[in-house]
Design goal:
alpha+beta; Phosphorylase Kinase, domain 1; Aminoglycoside 3'-phosphotransferase, Chain: A, domain 2; 2 domains; 5-stranded antiparallel β-sheet; 3-stranded antiparallel β-sheet; globular
């Protein structure tokens, strides 16, 4: 699995002049009036809110990396618009370059707020998980030939590639937990868990275009009703097993409701469920490796998962 590399880490990272942003936006939306906000979340992209309904998105120069692509996101969103127009994702209004350094996308603004900023009760949050799962299933069920032939998407070419992706990921996490001496409460070691997971992986050739990170910063909800309002940010998309889009959620309830929504209209295979179990272990190990605060809950979930295989 290729490592993430930032291509030009030391170049300046200026906020674009608002008049420049508006002039570029007006190539596609002539009535655009004003930049109303700038998102400084610190990620690979910077977004400029225009009026009440548009987002102007650029890649930040010092965070430019092969894994993120505005062209890939535009392609993905246009495929959804053509094949599954009822899905709640942004719509592309325009895409282009100002010069060799500024690539941009103009898209519709997703209503609502990111789930991580929403104050939802348990019932509302789990309902959002079900709707997100249903949305991901519809995305995964789109015809895949156009994604493959576009040459825009990093791709696992076989079940062997997918297994190698999981193996490298889980080996790295297990080694990190041990080398960094993270707190560990289970009787079996992280390395032993990694080896057990490898025996669980099915020889599945199922591969689809993935969102990559449909987590709480990219899942949007209506703050008044708590209802799911949409999914944003397809720039890190790649092609692999569909369960990779179901692996980031932390709690058992969230994971199971996400899967329930994913399966609501059509069951999944036994091979799918085996891969889903394996990637939940990966998610728990990632939580333990990343933060001591996440460790206790992840350890408890790992204990349960180990009874499943």
């Amino acid at each position: 699995m290729p490592k993430d590399v930032y291509l030009q880490p030391n170049v300046p990272d200026p906020v674009l002049d608002f008049e420049l942003v508006l002039s570029l936006a007006r190539r596609h939306a002539p009535n655009a009036q004003a930049v109303t906000a700038v998102d400084e979340s610190g990620g690979e992209a910077r977004t400029y809110a225009i009026d009440s309904n548009l987002i102007f998105k650029t890649q930040r120069p010092h965070r430019l990396r092969p894994r993120t692509s505005l062209a890939r996101e535009v392609f993905f969103l246009n495929q959804i618009a053509a094949v599954a127009p009822d899905l709640a994702v942004p719509r592309v209004v325009g895409y282009g370059r100002a010069d060799e350094y500024i690539e941009y996308t103009l898209m519709t603004r997703m209503p609502g707020i990111a789930l991580r900023n929403a104050n939802l009760d348990r019932v509302a949050r789990l309902q959002v998980m079900r709707e997100l799962g249903r949305t991901l299933r519809h995305i995964h069920q789109m015809p895949q030939a156009e994604f493959v032939s576009s040459d825009l998407f990093p791709s696992d070419q076989s079940s062997g590639d997918t297994r190698a992706r999981v193996n490298e990921l889980i080996d790295d996490l297990a080694a990190r937990i041990q080398n960094e001496k993270r707190e560990w409460s289970l009787q079996v070691s992280p390395i032993q868990i990694a080896e057990r997971v490898k025996t669980l992986l099915p020889p599945s050739d199922e591969r689809v275009a993935l969102h990559s990170n449909p987590y709480h910063e990219h899942t949007f909800v209506d703050p008044a009703t708590g209802e799911f309002s949409g999914l944003i940010d397809f720039g890190d998309a790649y092609i692999s097993h569909p369960t990779f889009d179901l692996r980031r959620w932390r709690t058992r309830e969230e994971r199971e409701q996400l899967l329930a929504g994913y399966c609501a209209e059509q069951a999944v295979s036994e091979e799918f469920l085996r891969m889903w179990l394996a990637l939940q272990v990966v998610g728990d190990l990632a939580a333990i490796a990343s933060s001591p605060l996440l460790g206790p809950a992840a350890h408890a979930d790992l204990e349960w998962l180990l009874t499943q295989f």
